[in-house]
Amino acid sequence: MNDMRRRQAGILGLQTCKRSLRRAALVVAASLPIAAQAQFPDCWPAEWTSAVNGAYISTEIAYGGDYVNMLRARSPHWGPWEEYEFCYRGPDNLYYIRALVNRGYVSAEIGYPGEDNGMLRARATDVGPWELFRIDWRDGRGVVALQSNANGRYVSAEYGFTGDRGAMLRARATEVGPWELFNLRFLSSHARGAPKRIPQR
Fold first, then answer.
1. 18, containing H or E segment
2. What is the DSSP string of 105-160?
3. Checking CA distances to 158, which of 119, 127, 176, 179 falls within 20 to 30 Å?
4. Does the reported pTM lie above 0.85?
5. What pLDDT was estimated at residue 94?
């Protein structure tokens, strides 16, 4: 009987130790700078589409100059250019987004002038203020609005634009309307342990 009690006490002690280590790891991750936190995030690949017409968000890797890797809501099909990973940066309820086609972090181009201001491009090699977004969960089925942490503006799909800039994404809206709504579905089949349901932060 004493041996059984000792074994049970040992198991409980081990479980308590594991819980303490997990809590300590989370505290350490939260205290690190953004670049170092990339080692600790909760990341999920996702299907990301416009709520207006269901078009997938594409990374325009074939564009040149200041428009290379621009994001546009324009594809009827999901392929390599439409694959993204959303990573939750726990302490401040912010996310960063990475295009899997080129491993570039999505930036809101706050320094661009005029109608290109706030353009989203998958071009950054590190995560800074321009690469952070808040996700505003609008319902329980994955309809979201994205708000840039850099300027506080909501991301819009510019359906009023034409040509190669048609439906480009820009962090420019002060209110949420149809152009600012997206469908976001995290893929539970991913090997890195995606959630069984969309996290409601």
1. helix 2-31
2. EEEEETT--GGGTTEEEEEESS--GGG-EEEEE-STTSEEEEEETTT-PEEEE-TT
3. 127
4. no
5. 94
d(CA 180, CA 174): 10
Task: Pull the structure tokens for residue 76.
Answer: 């009827």
What pLDDT, in 10s, does the model give residues 105-152?
999 999 999 999 999 999 999 999 999 999 999 987 899 999 999 999
* Tokens representing residue 165 in the block: 């800039």
Residue with token string 């968000």: 57
Contact 201, 179 (CB under 8 A): no
Distance CA 83, CA 72 (A): 13
Amino acid symbol at 198: I
The answer to whether residues 111 and 151 touch, using CB atoms and an 8 Å cutoff, is no
How many Å apart are CA 130 and CA 200, to the nearest integer?
23
| Element (DSSP H or E) covering residue 57 | strand 56-60
- pLDDT digits over 73-103, tens only? 999 999 999 999 999 987 778 999 999 999 9
Rounded CA-CA distance 150/131 in Å is: 8
Bridge partners (DSSP) of residue 134 are 147
